[in-house]
Design brief:
By secondary structure, the protein is α+β, with helices and mostly antiparallel strands. The chain contains four helices and nine strands; from the N terminus they run E-H-E-E-E-E-E-E-E-E-H-H-H. The chain has helices at 4-9, 107-116, 147-150, 156-166, and strands at residues 2-3, 14-20, 25-27, 32-34, 40-47, 52-65, 72-86, 97-99, 104-105. The chain starts with a strand and ends with a helix. 11% of the residues are buried. Bound molecules: zinc ion (2 copies). One zinc ion is lined by residues 133, 135-136, 138, 145, 147. This is DUF177 domain-containing protein.
């Protein structure tokens, strides 16, 4: 928590921020994040004669699974969050506003803002990940299974037809 009130009254015009948040998971309700290391927030708050602004970069390492082979993987997500600080919820509609409560800035709120736009399109441990065999579940990156030989997705009805033709 950073007191914006104190910063407003101080003679400082800038306040540098470089901190890690000691949390390894964050549940946003619709999505549950797990981090491989503490989220890192770097930036500053600064002011002019009327307003206080913030300019942060948030860096998180999110634990994920490859969408093909399910192997654990880490996705680095780095986002810039900046805007004018305000206690006024009505102003929140404006996306350049960072909401504070009673002139306190909660850095966990900054983390949440950075996580909201996290939407990886396709998570692959490597671009040519071969995935798992649909039949036996073997990891086709590290092994070849015997299903591979007949893996032509033959419809059983087609197989019967094929067998008939052979006669
Ligand atoms: Zn994979
Ligand atoms: Zn298989």
């Amino acid at each position: 928590m950073i007191s914006i009130k104190d910063f407003r009254m101080s003679s400082q015009r800038n306040k540098e921020i470089d901190t890690t948040l000691p949390i390894l998971k964050r549940d946003l309700g619709y999505i549950d994040f797990q981090f491989s290391e503490f989220p890192h927030i770097v930036g500053k708050i600064y002011k002019d004669s009327s307003e206080v602004y913030a300019d942060f970069n948030v860096s998180v390492f999110i634990k994920e699974n490859c969408s093909r082979c399910l192997k654990d993987m880490i996705v680095h997500h780095s986002v810039s969050i900046s805007g004018v600080l305000s206690n006024d919820e009505i102003m929140q509609e404006d996306e350049d506003v960072i909401l504070t409560q009673e002139d306190m800035l909660d850095l966990e709120h900054i983390l949440d803002m950075a996580l909201i736009d996290y939407a990886p399109s396709k998570l692959l441990c490597k671009s040519d990940c071969k995935g798992l065999c649909k039949n036996c579940g073997a990891d086709l990156n590290t092994t070849t299974c015997s299903c591979n030989i007949m893996d032509e997705n033959i419809d059983p009805r087609m197989q019967i037809l094929k067998d008939l033709l052979k006669k």
